[in-house]
Specification:
This protein is an alpha+beta fold. It is 32% helix and 25% strand. It starts with a strand and ends with a helix.
């Protein structure tokens, strides 16, 4: 059971940041995973008055506020045109539309959950996060922050670069957490791959050995899939074994890489 003593809607980011420094205080986000926990919260911090619930398009990037819902990512024409509908694919299996209308980008990212589809996708988009205190970090740097880091996630910045992107996941049932999540992108001629739900949080890898340097075909895609599966560690839980995840990883990466060639 979740017990909240005080509820506050700060009017500035400075106020929100100051409040969140106390360990017994919690930023709510969409409050969809938080409400399932058993804990006592001294002050619940709601960011809904800070104007973080919109996607802004600039000449060279999209700025996605922390309070933007997953449903907005799913339906945003600009973001999906940029990524060949990878945003829609990455969130459309998350429970249902009602849930995605409440779940937020900030809530999905800040916990750096192993099952996070959006953390997996953002890592291959050359995206950055802007934290109120720490400033801008690459998504990979952000993903590696210690869990106890207390800051306010303000926005995610996605550059408007020519890119090819594919997102794939394996699920036991349509709306379950992913058994494995995979995102692959080609930006500026460089291939980047991120694998999540290992069941640990997503981690990104590049084609360091140049497997795909001379182009993409079935054989090279298979070799790269095997390379990624060998580089990563996998664990077992109620959804799948480590051995199964490793095999699925090679398959999903191969399929995603081939989809980049097919466009």
């Amino acid at each position: 059971m979740l017990t909240i003593k005080n509820y506050v809607r700060p009017k500035t980011l400075d106020e929100a940041y100051e409040l969140c420094q106390k360990k017994t205080n919690v930023v709510l986000g969409g409050m969809l995973w938080l409400k399932m926990q058993t804990r006592n919260v001294n002050t619940a911090i709601d960011l809904c008055d800070l104007g973080l619930d919109r996607v802004s398009e600039e000449e060279d990037c999209y700025r996605i506020g922390a309070m933007v819902s997953l449903r907005m990512l799913e339906t945003h024409q600009g973001l999906n045109a940029l990524t060949q509908n990878a945003f829609a694919e990455s969130v459309q299996h998350i429970v249902g539309v009602q849930f995605r209308n409440g779940a937020t980008v900030g809530g999905s990212l800040y916990g750096r959950f192993g099952f996070s589809d959006v953390l997996t996708l953002f890592q291959v988009l050359h995206a950055k996060v802007r934290l109120h205190h720490m400033g801008e970090l690459s998504m990979q740097e952000f993903a590696q922050l210690p869990r106890g880091t207390r800051d306010i996630l303000v926005e995610v910045i996605v550059p408007k670069k020519p890119m090819k992107v594919c997102y794939l996941s394996q699920r036991n049932t349509a709306t379950d957490f992913p058994v494995l999540a995979c995102a692959v992108s080609s930006v500026d001629g460089k291939i980047c791959c991120a694998v999540g739900a290992r069941p640990a949080k997503a981690i990104a890898l590049s084609d360091e050995t140049g497997i795909l340097a001379n182009g993409i075909d079935l054989e090279r895609a298979q070799v790269f899939g095997d390379y990624v599966a060998q580089k990563l560690d996998f664990g077992s839980n109620m959804r799948a074994s480590a051995a199964y995840r490793k095999k699925i990883c090679a398959v999903l990466v191969r399929r995603a890489v081939l989809s980049l060639k097919e466009g």
